What does this fold into?
Amino acid sequence: MINHSVNHPKTIVEVIKHGFQLWANTFMKAIPFSLLLGIINMGLQFGMKPYLPHQDGKLSGSTEGMHAVSTVPEMPGYIFLYLIAFMVFSLIIHAGMSYRINAIVLRTEPTFDKALLVGVRKVFPILGVWILTSLAMFVGFMALVIPGVVIGVYFAFSYLLVVITDKGIIESIRESCRLVSGNFWHTLGALVLIGLTYIVLAFALAFLLGLLAFVLEPVVKENLYIVMSSVVIVILYPFFTTCLLAVLYDLQNRKSLDSNQKPTHRIAA
It folds into this structure.
């Protein structure tokens, strides 16, 4: 058992370090969920591939100019239903993963099916939070971008709170705002660092996978991007989740210390 009690305010780097440690400690428990996400992502991309723009012919300097002909078959209506189903199932699976990781931090270990059932049971509050957050951020970004960034930071933990607590949609949004209040720049810095780290790791992983293109069959090379994106999801989505949870725990402990209460979370393996 690795004890990471947060008994004083942590720097952004320390918080992300805790996210890395939690990623390593819980990876094998999270990977069944990320595998499902990767498989669903792969199915979506293969299903959409025939209806995405592709090139017929080669670029040349002839009278045709520098443009190739793009052929896009008419997209059937069921594809949109598939996209909606993909979004809903992705939210459910990620909710199950988040719940299981948080439960391990709290020194319990729900089974895969029990954690997934939590995502199913909370699907409507999760969708409600996602819709309200997306609408608020859209309005904010329409108002010269900066308000959208501010709203995004304040609402960033609403989704996790509705999953790992008994709070409803509005309560989770209010709690997220309360936690970020007074810690805005700290939270923004942590979220930016998480995003940059994710991008660097994703590019590194994609580069390593791209090296396989030299030894793969042409039919595999053609679909390598789809496979690569799914592998990145399988490996790095748990990292993104654990880092968000680490920031959430840090904010909760900061508020607890402000009110002279005992810190509430430990990161455990």
Summary: Residues 12-50+72-258 form one domain. The longest strand covers residues 54-56. Residues 12-48 form the longest helix (37 residues). Residues 1-7, 55-69 have pLDDT under 50 and may be disordered.
